[in-house]
Sequence to fold (385 residues):
Amino acid sequence: MGNTAVVVGGGIGGLAAAIGLRRIGWEVTVVERAPTLQDAGAGISLAANGLRALDELGVGEAVREASRGQYSGGTRTPQGGWLTRMDGTALEKAVGTPIMGIPRSTLHRLLRAPLRAEALLIGSEVCSVERVGPGTARVDCGDRTLDADLVVAADGIGSKVRGRLFPDHPGPVYSGSTVLRGITEKAVGLRTDFELTWGHGAEFGHIAFNDGRAEWHAVLDLPARTRFADPPAELRRRFRDWHDPIPALLDATRPEDVLHHDVHELRTPLPSYTVGRTALLGDAAHAMTPNLGQGACQALEDAVTLAAALAAEPTVEAGLARYDAERRPRSQAVARAARQAGRMGQRLSHPVAVALRNTAMRLTPSRLATRMILRHHAWVPPQLG
Ligand code: FAD
Fold:
């Protein structure tokens, strides 16, 4: 059985896959096209399934220490009325942890820590992956080639590797929403850890961090590639009548720290997560809308499952078949659920439908809401030994 791997992409999925493969004794090289490790991005929430995967990778404790438990908050209307209250304590009782909020840059740093610096090839872009023998794949990075027993394509939603392996697949499509995000410059006084507010065609949310700062995101249903001359001013205009602390969060963020991306998803599911000696993982395999906060959590599940399957099976082929069988149904079901959740949020525009949804949410007992969340969070990782 082979034991060398090249991971294409040094995002959350790629780094986690590299840690998992290292833990089962493989030699791993991660190829990342970004020239520097700036870890741009706002914040991220990690649910129990993602945290359990991180535990299995040996970094769960460090991530928890750097995170803040999301105990209080919930979903609101723009006027400030509560549709649901989040019960982090009930979630903790049910799955051992509340959802945790962490800056992406911190998560990236903690995922890089267990890897040797030489294992990371920064500023190298993978152009192609080819099969060069029955058990070998070759990764071409332009200035060099790397041969390995396994290639893990963790190159994100725009995955070139996926495009080459599945030339007939339509690839990612625009979800209908664009998202602006930021992290406040300093600590802000927040009454809750997490909030999500739904208006017509717009959503605003925040996640509090353990240093008192907070990340916020504003989702707008607009045509793809809509851009604003002055994004912070545009957001202040659109959200000025929304409840506290929304205007205050916008005011507490430096204009140059506001990021703007269109949200895409892989709406047509892939027929397989493996081709020959290549395994697709994370957004490359199943990019989903962010409505359930599960994209990175699913990538972490992929990473642990791939390593465990390769460790358990006698051949790489059998390990890859097991990875595909274990990961494809679950991650594609979560992607479908995320899309569905998006339809019930800011995308719902008919006033009657909005009124019905709001009433249903207000009447749903928090125990039932917790049970619905658990469908995705209550995942038990395979053991890496
Ligand atoms: P990426 O993070 O996209 O990493 C891919 C990496 O590959 C990049 O570093 C890229 O530079 C590199 N790369 C690409 N092509 C090449 C190449 N040819 N050669 C070398 N390197 C290459 N998920 C959650 O679990 N919780 C949340 O709260 C959450 N919030 C979200 C909010 C928003 C607005 C969005 C859009 C997503 C959110 N997600 C969340 C989803 C999550 O961000 C993604 O699912 C996750 O980051 C995917 O990780 P990845 O490693 O698969 O891909």
